[in-house]
Design brief:
single chain, three-stranded antiparallel β-sheet, globular
Length: about 350
């Protein structure tokens, strides 16, 4: 079905905005003449109808595992390594669930039943399983023409709890840093210092290589990030001193900043030492990712704006950063107060 809307510009000329939607497929364009817009709409509808018919035939011929396998090969293999690991497991769950079925047989109702199988898991986890499958279907609809529409789109997502913003108190931070120095793994302390200073994610810091570190400028270039947007973070003070010390002590030809003691060609696994430091510091309900929340919280409490925090932590949208709004409020209150005193 096509719809045409007319918009009048400031100079008096008109533009015709066309939107066509047929069986889950959609397209839009803008034209100067209405007759051209109408012809484009008619051709687009015809094309979508033919494409839909072809995709119905493909859905009857193709199997669900075929779709997942092609997605893994063409799409998932190009994502960040940590994303590949997580989504491979998620897609494997769906692949096993619908191992013997054609794409035409996998309906919204069946996927909803699969969601129920995931029920013991947290709502956030279940929704991420659905998101991974939904993107797989989006590729099958838009690029491969294997299915006429995306059945995951109509599956209800579970309400998620408010975003976690656990951060270290002053006393907890001091205790953690003290016991991190005493941890069996010598890299726990520098990792904690750098993360508290600049907020990289666990895999971003764990897989850090020396080629990503600029010693002269004290900068770290994070290239394999969760949202696949590279960013550069600048080190100051103690964090820069810690990295400079590691730089001076690095082995000739070393690749990883934090190498495994058993295999220097691989990054270190510091989980045991990290958990031991937490236990000895008597810090409860705290995970490694909360160091990143701590870094953001400290920035907010020191007067950083949400935009500042977004850029430093590498959030793709400001929505993710808004969980720290309550911590920036005192800073914005002070700004308003100073402005009011200056103008009245």
């Amino acid at each position: 079905m096509a719809s045409i809307k007319t918009a009048e510009l400031k100079n008096g000329t008109r533009r015709y905005r066309v939107r066509v939607r047929v069986n889950g497929q959609s397209d839009s364009a803008t034209f100067r003449r209405k007759d051209v817009a109408e012809r484009w709409a008619a051709r687009s509808e015809e094309r979508m109808i033919l494409t839909g018919q072809a995709s119905v035939e493909q859905a009857r011929a193709r199997t669900f595992p075929e779709m997942v396998d092609l997605y893994r090969k063409q799409v998932l293999s190009r994502k960040a390594l940590n994303t590949q690991t997580v989504q491979w497991q998620q897609l494997e769950f769906w692949r096993r669930l619908f191992a013997d079925q054609k794409l035409s047989e996998v309906t919204t109702a069946l996927i909803a039943e699969g969601k129920a199988v995931l029920a013991p898991r947290a709502a956030t986890t279940i929704n991420s399983y659905l998101a991974a499958l939904s993107h797989c279907y989006s590729m099958a609809v838009k690029e491969w023409g294997w299915v006429p529409d995306n059945p995951v789109r109509n599956v209800w997502r579970l309400p998620q709890p408010r975003a976690r913003t656990r951060f270290l108190s002053t006393e907890e931070r001091g205790a953690l840093l003290f016991y991190a120095r005493l941890a069996p793994c010598p890299y726990v302390y520098p990792i904690v210092v750098v993360v508290l200073s600049t907020g990289p994610r666990k895999q971003e810091i764990r897989r850090l290589e020396w080629r990503q570190y600029n010693h002269e400028r004290g900068e770290i270039y994070l290239e394999e990030t969760k949202n696949e947007d590279p960013r550069t973070v600048r080190l100051f003070g103690h964090a820069r001193e810690v990295m400079a010390d590691l730089y001076r002590k690095r082995q000739p030809g070393a690749r990883h900043v934090f190498p495994s003691p058993h295999d220097p060609g691989r990054p270190v696994d510091f989980r045991y030492s990290w958990e031991q430091a937490l236990e000895r510091a008597a810090i409860e309900n705290f995970c490694f990712h909360d160091l990143r929340h701590s870094a953001a919280s400290y920035l907010a409490m020191q007067g950083a704006t949400l935009t500042d925090i977004k850029e430093i932590l590498g959030h793709r949208t400001i929505v993710t950063t808004q969980k720290y709004t309550h911590l920036t409020r005192s800073h914005t209150d002070a700004v308003v107060e100073r402005t009011t005193r200056a103008i009245f």
